[in-house]
Structures are given as C-alpha cells and as structure tokens.
Amino acid sequence: DGGITQSPKYLFRKEGQNVTLSCEQNLNHDAMYWYRQDPGQGLRLIYYSQIVNDFQKGDIAEGYSVSREKKESFPLTVTSAQKNPTAFYLCASSPGTPTTGELFFGEGSRLTVL
Amino acid sequence: GEDVEQSLFLSVREGDSSVINCTYTDSSSTYLYWYKQEPGAGLQLLTYIFSNMDMKQDQRLTVLLNKKDKHLSLRIADTQTGDSAIYFCAESINDYKLSFGAGTTVTVRA
Lengths: 114, 110
Hints:
Chain A is mainly beta. In chain A, 0% of the residues lie in helices and 47% in strands.
C-alpha cells in the first residue's frame, strides 16, 4: 500500500547528541515536509522540499538539518543546537502543484531528550 | 500574515452535533482544510473547501465558510465516540505550504 513511513516511532536521546529521524514515501510525491507538534501549539513547519536536491527552511529551522538526495526520502537531523528538541515530529508529502494542496502524513516520531 | 486560530477544547454528548470554529487571516488562501488526528498518530484529511464556496457537505460533515469574516466551521452530525480526536483547521499559503491552527480537542461523552 502507498503511504509515508516514519521511523523510529519513539526515540530517546541524551543532551548533546544528534539524532536522525527517517521519512520514506512511496506515493511518488514531489514535495515533502517536516513539522513539529507541541501541545497547544499546533503544527510548525521545520523544513520542506519541493524537488530532489532542493529544500527550504520553514518557520523553526534553527537546530535542524535535512537532505533530499532521493525523491522517496527526506530525513531530519535534530542537532545538539536545538535547545528544546522534545516533541512529536510529523513528516508529510504532497503531489505538488497544481493540486488541492492536501498533505499526506506519516504516523509521527516522538523524540524525548533525557 | 499566516495565523489560524481555533478554540482548544470541545466536549459534546454522543448523538449531538459538534461545531468546531476557526478563524484565519490570509484572504488569498485558495483552500481551507479540516484534518483529524487520533492519539499518537499522524493527521488525516477530513475535508477541504475551495475559497469560492460557502458550504460543503460530505455525509456527517458540513463545512461553512464566511470569507468576509474569515471564519470556517466544521459541523459533525450525530457525533460518535470514534469522533473523539484533535481537529486542525488549516489554510493554504501557497501551492506548497499550509498554516495550521493549534487544534481543537473534541471529547465525546456518553
């Protein structure tokens, strides 16, 4: 079945460590996104990529990095520079333009910094 | 600007109608969306409405759009326990970007 797979679902990290969250899609979508979700704050855009080998910063990119070497994959690295990394991270994709702009979401990865 | 606001909580009795409200700021938004998130999961699109429409109905769901007031609402008829979730309002900023509200947690009580 087509969809978006995020891994791991739960991740624990010590302060000062980098961690990489995986996101893979087999929907043949051009665009991919990373959002951060905190209680009561909704979803905030970290990075997005419209095509392979290209990506743009979202609203809260500081302390995060991404790559888009393949159409199917858009990994997110949470670096030690991210001051408050404990959150629920959601990856999404969309077919790109011209569409209804609908996003298709993965099941999320919950990162806890100890 | 990009700012979507919605109330944080709604409690409704099983069988009643739920109404979730949202206001947005970008008058150029082409589409407005309602997404549903169940505990520990990602978001799923419930429905969307094109900005030149006033209303859209899809089975138990009715979306009303007031462009003048930049107000969007979602009505769920005959609310069931399976409707307990967080509901997010979102507006399209451009072809690639959506702006989301903080989400309304709907609790259905027996």
